[in-house]
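Appendix B, example 12.
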Amino acid sequence: MDEACFAMNFVEDSADSPSSLYRSIAIWSLLNDDETKFVSSGSSVKIVIELWAIENERSLRDFIQNVFPLRIRILNNTEILEGSMSNSNLTVTNHVQSPRYPSAYPRDVEKKFLLQNADPKGIVRITFDDFNIDNQSEMEVFDSDGSYLFSSRSHFRRPPAMESSGRALSVNLKGNGFTQQIGFRAQYEFSNETRWSDMPSDELCDLTVDGYGGEITLNGRTELLDKRIDCIFVIQRRNSLVGRSYDRIFLRIDQFRLHGEDLRLEVREGAYSTGDSLISLYDAQQDDELLAKQPKNGLTVSSDDPAYYIRLRGLLKSTVGLQITYSLYYRWAGPVCPGSSEFRCTNQRCIKAHLHCDGIDNCGDGSDELVCDGSSSLSDVTAMIGGLPNTNNYKQQPQNESDISALLALVLGICGVVVIFLVAVTVVLKVYDRRRHRGRRVPTVDATGAALPHHNEVAPSIQTVGERRFYVLPETQISVIEAPPCYDDALKHPPVPSGHTGAYSNAAFVGGPPPAISPDSTARPDTPVPSFDEELEEIKDHPLHTSLTTIKKD
C-alpha cells in the first residue's frame, strides 16, 4: 500500500534560461520557518501540488483543508525602506539590490525602492557597488522633489555616488523584456550631515577586461589626481570563450605603491561585490609586504565562470605604482600545447602565444619571458630546459591544481584508435575488392563470335587474325593462346579424310550404296585453304605481332 503524501512547491523559472529554475520552495520549509506566506521575486509563480493515498489519513486531509483555499494577492512592487542615524550619531549602512541578485533579474520586472530618512531634516546617500543591467533595461534614480539624479538611458555606466536634497530618494528598475546577470547592488545610509567629506568623485575609472591576459595600471590617468576615486575592475572570461578550455584566471598584484590618503585595494572572487574576499590592502605596500599578503604564486580561480572583482578607493595623489597582472590559462601535462597559437609554460600552463615575451610574467613562474631574442641569461635557459623555473628570480607554481590532461589524453586516444580502425577497414576492403575482380572471367564474345558490350578489364580478350583466333591476357599482353574455332569457322574447315567407310549403310535413305570418299572429292574449290606460311605473313602484318612470340603448327 502506498504511503500517503502531500507536497506543494512554489516555483519560479530562471530569467536567463526558461528551461531552468531560479528557486523552488516547499510549503513544509515555510512552515518550519514559521512563515505563512510566500512572496515571489517576479511577476509570476507556479504552484505545483502532488498528493496521493490521503483517503485514510485524516490528519493530512484536515491539514490540506486548512491550507486551501489559497489566498493570492497582487502587490504593488514598491519597497519602502525607512531609517535614521543611530543614537550615537553613527551612520548605519544598508544595502538594496535588484531582484534575484546576483542572478539575472526577471525580464518583466518593475521594481521601485523608496529610501526614506525618518528625520525630516535628514538626507539619503547611495553608492553603487555593482551595476550590470541590459542596455535595453532601464534604471532611474529620483531626488526627493522628483527630479532626475541618474538615468541609464542617458548615461549607461555605473551610477556615481549620490545624495538627496531632502529626506527621500527612490531607485526604479524596469526590465523592459530584457535581463542581465548580476543586475545592481548599492549601499545606502541615512545621515543628518549636509556635507559628505569623503564622497567619491564621479570621474569614471571602471574597467571590465575579458582578454587572454595583460596588466591593469593607472599610468597616464592624470584626470584622477587629487580626487577621491572609486574604481572597479572586473576580470572575466568573455562569453565567446564559455565552454572552451581556458577555465582558469591567474592574478598577481605586482605593485601597490600609489600615494594618497585612505587608499584601499580589495580583490574578491567572482564578478560581483559579494564574492569571497581574497586580498585586502591599505595604503602603499612594499614588495616584501605584498609577498606576505597574497599567495606565493599569485591567485588562481577556477570555475564555470571564473572572474575577479577588484576595487580601488581613496584620495589619489599619484597614478604610478599600481600593477596587476592577469592571464587566462588551462593546465596541460604534455610537452606542447594542443593549440597552434598557444605557449606552454614550464609550470604546465597553456596561455595565448601573443603573451610570450610581452614583458609581463603571464605564466606565474616567468618561463614565458626567459627566451626572448637571446636576451635571457644562460642560467634562465638552463632552468627552462631542465623543466623547472629559476627559483632565484621567479616563484614556483604549486602542483596541487586539478589537471585536465588525463581527460584530454583519453579523448585524443579514443579518436586515434577510431581513425586507425577506419583506415585498416578501408585497406582490407580495397584489397578484397581487387582480388575479387581479378578472379572473374567474363566472356567477351557470344556463341557466334560477336563481341559482348561489356568488357572486363581482367578477363582475356579474343583477337582474330585471318581465320584464326587467339586469347590475349591484358595484364602482360604477351601470353597468347590460340582459341578453339567457333561454330561457323568449324563449318568452313574441310572434312578430315578417312580411310574406312561407315559401319552401317541404309540404302533406303541414300538411294544406293554410299559413294566412295576420296580426299580430293571433299575439298571445296570455292574455299581455298591458306598455307601456314601465308598465315604467318598475315599475322606479322597484324598489330598484335609484337605480342606473338611463337606459333606452332598443329
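Confidence is low (pLDDT under 50) at residues 375-403, 547-554. Residues 253 and 290 are 7 Å apart (CA to CA).
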